[in-house]
Amino acid sequence: MQTADEMTVKIESLSNLGYGIAKIDGFVVFIENSCPGDILKIKLTKVTKNYAYAQIVEIIEPSLHRIKPFCPMQKVCGACQLQFIDYEYQLELKQKIVQDAIKNLGNIDIEIPKTIPSPEIKNYRRKIQYPISQTKNSGRILAGYYQQKTHEIVNIKYCPIQPEICDKIIEFIRNKANEFGITGYIEKTHSGDLRHVVIRNSAYSKKNLVALVINNTKASDNIKKLAKSIFDEFDEVSGVCVNFNNKQTNVILGKDTKCLFGSDYIEEKILDKIFKIGVNTFFQINPVSAENIFKYVKDYIKANLKSPIVLDAYAGITSFGIVISDVCKQVVSVEENKDSCILANEVLLENNITNVEVHNMDAAKFFEQETRKFDAIILDPPRKGCTKESLDYAYKLAKDTIIYVSCNPATLARDLKYLTEVKGCRIQSIQPFDMFCHTYHIENVAIIKI
Prior knowledge:
Elements: E1 6-10, E2 13-14, E3 20-24, E4 27-31, E5 39-47, E6 51-61, H1 87-102, E7 127-134, E8 141-146, E9 153-155, H2 164-179, E10 194-201, E11 208-214, H3 221-233, E12 237-244, E13 256-262, E14 266-270, E15 273-277, H4 287-304, E16 309-313, H5 319-324, E17 330-335, H6 338-350, E18 356-360, H7 363-369, E19 374-379, H8 388-397, E20 398-406, H9 409-421, E21 426-433, E22 443-449
Helix pairs in contact: 1-9, 2-3, 7-8
């Protein structure tokens, strides 16, 4: 087989990165925008020794689960890879992705239950991060998501997976930026004023926190004028901040943020607790689905552990620790982001929660120096998962249970394999939750017994 060869295939399954998988005499071919059951005419675009990539030339016979995407930009924008597949089948495919990842554990026999759906599958995304650029000739401001596998911005005027108010704020910024002579960021030359616009939207209060990420170390008068115009225009905007990021990096936010108008946080509610979310603080982008996860963890602790002492590692704004505080004797929270810890302590004080202690430090360093034992440890690491050292310490410090919350089935499987094969732990259950509707991403909660 060679690049540009055309052939007819049937899609058998879906990869963990959302590609349809077909096999030609046992040789694996990955095809974008394809669904299990599709019969397709394809053209090979890349051929390696072990696999190939292809694009669709013609859909000969569509899968029974293929539907018309509700967003006309789906094929161009890289954000919603699975929107052309009906939602119920998306949940089945995500369950299968987790099952396939866990197979790598070897002889562990565990059944993966059905994926718990998101209560909302449109307008659910409450954190918007739009890269900003501009056209070469007219200088028109562009804002949107990157086209798949490129850094070319798809200029998005309407996105049905985020609240409508966010589209209005972005459109206002496009127009006002030109009016104030603010330029969009050009990545190749590291030039221009405005790099990103970040919006945090609250499902609870419906308020928005807007951050203008600029390619500078201080805010110009024109940036300040833009910030004030946003704050004055929208009653739904509770605050406008400027984030300073003049480094040549793909990292969106710089370390320093200054609030120019209004409040530097929004409030979000999970179960019966209200949280404060700032520009730089981590919080789930789909809070109504996240509530299912928090309830699942809280219910497990309440039903299985009596008056426990729990360690909440990689804690963010201590969301797990605060939610479970009323079913625990004590919660110890560890988070390296200073802003998150400040907001967590404010929430604890305002809610008169006295049994949660917050440590602003790296989780691995905390593990290394901690001598207490915990009835349960909650691990909620980033996509890269935990280091072996962190897993070693978690095993050492946990009396009975590790609750591992993961957004990446591959790193979850890797870390569970280490805990079972090297440490002798037992996996009690793994429950998938759909947090990122219409994408290949899937959240899981694994209960691990020591």
